[in-house]
Amino acid sequence: MAAGQTNKRKKKVVKFRRTPSINVGVVIFALIFCYIVIYVGSYFARDKVAIYEVVKGKSAVYSNKSYKGFVLREETVVGADNPGYINFYVKDGSRVSKVTTVYTLDESGRLSELLESENDEETSGLSKENKQQIIDEIVRFKNEQSNIHFDEVYNFKYDINSLLLECINLNKLNSISQNLAESIGNFQLLKSPFSGIVEFYTDGYENFSINDISESVYNDKGYSKVKVKSGALVEKGQPVYKVINSEDWSVVVELSQEDAQLYSQNEYVDIRFLKDNLKATAQLEIINAGGKYYGRLSFKRYMVRYADYRFLDIQIIGGNIEGLKIPKSSVVEKEYYKIPLGYYSVAPNADGSSVREGFKKESLDGTNETIEFVEIDIAKKDDEYCYVDPAKIENGTILVKDDTMERYQVGTEREVFKGVYNVNSGYTEFRAINIINESNDYYIVDSQDNYGVQIYDHIVLDASLTDENKIIFQ
Fold first, then answer.
1. Reported pTM
2. Which sequence spans correspond to the domains of the chain?
3. Which of 137, 162, 293 is nearest to 215 (CA)?
């Protein structure tokens, strides 16, 4: 019986279910593992954005191009002091000083006959002083001559010929000078008022300057030279000759907009004069006049060689164009609002240390009109316009010009620019670029563009894989 009671007590034992314990470490490990799996999966699933570092580059793609050039020189026209018959005593293209007798004037016209009749050996020869003068000129040239400047031999030849002609004619003139007054009446010996190169023609362009250049000057169908020959009758004030006062001269050529952009990075270019195939180096200046582009090629040599020409055909010899090298795959396009530069304004910061860029905006509150300055980032600026991101200013905004209070509605004009996504800050920012040349896979862009990219900037290699203002995962 006792055993039965014991069995009953055993049957009354109740088993309690154990509450499972949570291992915190295992949970944390599981969460980290899940995060890693998701991150790695998303990394391999998303498109990779490769980054390109901007480097210097150059292109040698532009070939030799020929142009018709208009010659500019410092020229002074000398007119006849009085009416009469003229006789020259220096050669065309010769170098003269202020004491050089250039020509004579006589009223009767018989002076040339007297000079031709005076052909004896004594008067036609050279005096001791003449010979010494020529020897001194040869010695001077020998001491100064350089193999590098071989063209100076031609200048020397002109100088010697002019000197010989002047000496012989003046000797003849001196030999008959005692009887001149009785034979031909009034006559004058005229010296050059300036030092320089004498040319016995005028063409109406002597006072022409670079400020007068236009495309009409290249139409040379009506171009003509007016020359005065020895023995001719001239009136008082009539142009007799001109003096080229300086060795500095220039050739101005017409350029297309593409060529102007092409050469804009070159301070000096190599050229060839097609008349005689002479090669030279010229300083280049790009000029915008009346909406047309011109290239002014300046020289400090060879002026005498081409003193007789107003038009010269030249060839610009191809060379390298330097800039920044940008892959074509990096380039995208973006539209900007185009705002006239006159509406651009600045305002000082509160501390006065710098200024803020922006515009003055007109606002209407009911019937009240207010004008306030709004700070806006300028994406690009040139000589005529500012370019603003449409996200920075609302379409239709009325801007006010400072000085005249004129109004301009934003969005009236727009322009599309090529550019790249700059990622220096970790996200994509559009930067406009100025393309100056290109090859099959790359553009060469202007390295001096303050609004564009700079060397060593990081940009998106394939711009089609992303958009503006996107965080970049490399």
1. 0.51
2. 62-319, 326-465
3. 293
